[in-house]
Amino acid sequence: MKNRFTIPKVKHYPLESTKDWYVWFRFNGGNPIRIKTGLNKIQDYNERLEEATALAEVLKEKLENGWIPNAANIYKSSIEKLTLYSALDFALEKKKSQLAHKSFLDYKCTCRFVKVYAKKMKFDRMYVNSCERFHIKKIFDKLQLDRNWTAKNYNKHLGYIKSLFSELVEWELISSNPVRDIRTQKEEKTESNIPLTDEEHKIVFDFLKERNYNFYVYCSFIYHCGIRPYELTQIKCKYINLEENLISLPAEITKNDSDGFVSILGNLKDLEPV
């Protein structure tokens, strides 16, 4: 059966209306397929109209040459009216499989903050493909003010949202990441970021060795191996290879849910719990 389609047409509005432009057509009697392809990023009316007209001609030529709009085209049409709220939920769900449980909870917390403040600022029903840097910046500035976030808090949550919007780009719900160019804030260095000197390190470990030898052994493993405290508590004898000086870390105990190895360094093999 020969495919039937209508001639692609440009749907346009005055720029001050803020309504999105698109080129639309019907294929085999189905619902209208709408394609924007970055039209609404063009701020000049005549330039946008010229670009939209050219897009309509290209689509018409493709249809006449036998092009069949696939599910992706229909999918793009259906997501044009996806709200910021729904888009964040979508991105979080897609991101879930890539994250450890704790990291997922961190993302979920940030997502909840943004959704609450998006609603307060009347951005919650905004279509995600209309969301711009300005909107996210406004939300984060208000969040920082109300919740008394430090620069470190601000940057952490901004990083999570930036990652979620990258997921939306990956799934082609948006063409570019509006959060990408929001600057991080300068973080103040704290005393906790200053490493111990060799002399201080010796004083601390000598103290631990005298007061609590088993805790000294525990800290020595973390210091020499770079192993995470939780992972160290989950190690079993079968994970340790003394001949090759290696400790295997199965995926179920690691933060990133993948198998790993750490080397047994320093004087660790000489330490015996009491």
Automatic annotation (TrEMBL):
Does Coiled coil count among this protein's keywords?
yes
GO terms (BP aspect): DNA integration; DNA recombination
Which GO-annotated molecular functions does the record name?
A: DNA binding
Signal sequence range: none
Chain segments annotated as coiled-coil in the UniProt record: 35-66
Q: Key word DNA-binding present in the record?
A: yes
Q: Which domain of life is it from?
A: Bacteria
Q: Which terms are listed as keywords in the entry?
A: Coiled coil, DNA recombination, DNA-binding
Q: Which InterPro entries match?
A: DNA_brk_join_enz, Integrase-like_cat_sf, Integrase_recombinase_N
Please state what the protein is called.
Core-binding (CB) domain-containing protein
